[in-house]
Amino acid sequence: MNHVRVAVIGAGFSGLGTAIKLVQSGRDDFIVLERGPDLGGTWRVNTYPGCACDVPSQVYSFSFELNPDWSHTYARQPEIQAYLLRVAEKYDLRGRVVFNADVTDAQWTGSVWEIETTAGSWTADVLVAGTGGLSEPSFPDIPGLSSFQGTTFHSAEWDHSWTAAGERVGVIGTGSSAVQFVPHVQREAASLTLFQRTASWVLPRIDKEISDGHKSAYRRVPGLQRLVRALVYTRTEIPLIGFRYDRRILKLGEKMGRKLLEEQVSDPVLREKLRPHFDLGCKRVLLSNHYYPALAADNADVVTDRIVQVVSTGVVTEDAAGMRTTHELDALILGTGFTVQDPPIAHKISVDGATLAEHWKRSGMSALHGVAVSGFPNLFFLMGPNTALGHNSVLLMIEAQIDHVVKALDLLDRQGLTAIEPRADVQEAYDARIQRELQPTVWNSGGCNSWYLDEHGRNTVLWPTFTFTYMRQLRDFQASEYVLS
Ligand code: N01
User: Fold this and answer.
1) pLDDT tens per residue across span 344-373
2) Overall pTM > 0.90
3) Is 287 in the pocket of ligand 1 (CB under 6 A)?
4) Which domains are present in the chain?
């Protein structure tokens, strides 16, 4: 079995960022295990029409690799993927990645991680999971789903051999992905039936093309793009004040959302269907100028009755009076999100025969700083528990985590140590603090059900406050928080 100092799982933003920082810290003895055939992670996989970032592009790049060429306020999927490929080329990372290497098992032997993949086996001193929270499509548990005879796929597995032209298309889901692809599908389809369980808040997407003049100024004027990034960063932090500290601020956003709905949907029945009934931000805020008009079009229908089953020809719903309707369809698209509360990688990582998933099932999903788990030595997470954001760019969090991992490696190397894991009491106190801080937030008590919350209503996904607080917290590596051996 080949041995490496560090094995990184995933070649998306997290894994590639880690590879760059490992090289920059003088480390050469590592591999990146990628289950897919190419680099890019979520931005390689999600290729549905209209796929774009809903966080401003100026903050959606590595801080050490700004991109002067973003085309719009909100970058499109192809250009984000192209950016990542460019970065990988610049840092010569491709050769360090083993493609089609799906990690099937990773066991701690007491001194190393034994890693089985579909492309071979390795041992590693340290394992870094850069697998992302939104990587495993979630398929709804609807009876008869597999009996559907038309075309069906998940939004994260878009079938590009299929075209909506002339088709009767059904869509399940009204989240960030659906809001982006629904207008494209509606324009082409013979009919669009959107099955909505919950109406979300939709705000205008203020998206401008970035002129050639601006792009060239970003290249020529030293510090200009960094200044713009700082301004965009600060502006993007502001909604956190509403989400966490003062909900009156959210009323301004809710007013904008209601105005958009009134302006774009004239049918009062449809308007009521689309009106959200929870505080803004409780579920991720959707940004679109085209979603409501698409749903108000003559060929579109929004169905709010409960889905009871899928049959070979379509979807069966039931209204409040128990009356059933079969919606005949040629295609059914699942915009039903990802398995965030049960990360598949946790089922593959084990210590003493017990998986991390079993451990988290017992004690709730948590990690010190979202990065390391007590009882799981030399294991680090990027985008681990309570480090996702409802308001700003997760790349800020990822970079802070990578620096933290590198500092942990530095400590091991400097002191000739072999293993590091969080102290159980420190992790427990940390988790209790995060959960306390989340209590007053709109994500916990805004009156909605979301994938931020686990089955006990515990928010295991989001960071509770400003991103600069997290970055500051991770900057000073506190060796006393860890058990070292
Ligand atoms: O998934 P979601 P997504 N019957 O989980 C519905 C990121 N992202 O792929 O609301 C009926 O948000 C479910 O209904 P409900 C971003 O972080 C980022 O859209 O639970 N409906 C919901 O409407 C985002 O938050 C970008 O009642 C069912 C939908 O499916 C995350 O990805 C762009 C159902 C799932 O929505 C996920 O977004 C796109 C059922 N049985 C996405 N099961 C960026 O720009 C589920 N639903 C960075």
Assistant:
1) 999 999 999 999 999 999 999 999 999 999
2) yes
3) no
4) 2-39+93-136+339-484 (3.50.50.60), 145-200+238-334 (3.50.50.60)
